[in-house]
Amino acid sequence: MLIETYADLICPWCYIGKRRLARALADRPRVQVELRWQPFQLNPDMAAGGMERSAYLAAKFGGTERARQIHLVVEETAERDGLPLRLDRIRRSPNSFDGHRLIRIAARHGLGDRMADALFHAYFVDGLDIGDRDTLAATAAGLGFDFTEIKNLLNGDAETTAVFNADATARQLGLQAVPCYIFNRRYALSGAQEPASFLPLLDLGVEEQEGVTAAAD
Fold first, then answer.
1. Which of 102-106, 142-146, 167-171 has the lowest average pLDDT?
2. Which residues fall within 8 angstroms of residue 195, CB to CB, at 6 or more apart?
3. What are phi and psi of 8, to 5 degrees?
4. How high is the pLDDT of residue 173?
5. Which of 30, 53, 127, 139 has the fewest CB atoms within 10 Å, i.e. the most exposed one?
6. Model pTM greater than 0.90?
7. Is the Cβ–Cβ distance between 1 and 209 less than 8 Å?
8. Is 9 in contact with 120 (CB distance < 8 Å)?
9. For the chain, what is the radius of gyration of the CA atoms?
10. CA dist., res. 103 & res. 113, Å (int)
11. Mean pLDDT score of the chain, rounded to an integer?
């Protein structure tokens, strides 16, 4: 089963949703899954260097008090899910475009999903600026990639067109919020759903695959 996750690295609900999908998959160990990350930028017009966090929150949510209320809900949800989250450490809201490129670079080596995990951790736990290419290269090095090679790729145009096109495709499909999960390019599930919400679609994928196998026999 192919599961494509449309998400953004700076979206806390995408971070939470990724963990919940993993929990659902753990409940269905016989489902053979290919996980594929698809980029969606929540702030496609963000400056390349990002912006100071408090200014971003004030502009996005209309003030720090409203942002604090929203963060409280996110933090309580993450705590219930046993997911580490340190929003207080984030000092800069980054442009996530290069992070999406890095995931696609890692996916060439079968490490796209692990790279997404690493970038989520860097941002939501360590509070790092994942729009900074040195930070991205260092994160990649933690997964065994060569720092200098990754930095050179990011300084070039590696996966730039692919990320632009994938993001554009998401908008053409009508996506306006993330996360959104597409199963076998046929069924969609939106939002940071509870693990149980994924199970019917995972079961459906198994039934369809078994049907194909039986027909072939």
1. 167-171
2. 20, 21, 23, 24, 27
3. -125, 145
4. 84
5. 30
6. yes
7. yes
8. yes
9. 18
10. 8
11. 92
Query: Among the residues of the chain, which ranges form H helices?
Result: 12-26, 53-61, 64-80, 97-107, 112-124, 133-141, 147-155, 160-172, 195-216
pLDDT score at 11: 96
In the block, residue with structure tokens 């692990």 = 114
- Give the CA angle between residues 10, 14, 17 to the nearest 5°: 155
Q: Cα separation of 182 and 22, whole Å?
A: 15
- Residue linked to tokens 């260092």: 138
Q: Which residues pair with 72 in a beta bridge?
A: none
- CB-based burial label for 61 (10 Å; 0-12, 13-18, 19+): middle
107-148: pLDDT as tens digits: 999 999 999 999 999 999 999 999 999 999 999 999 999 999
Report which residue type is found at 95.
N
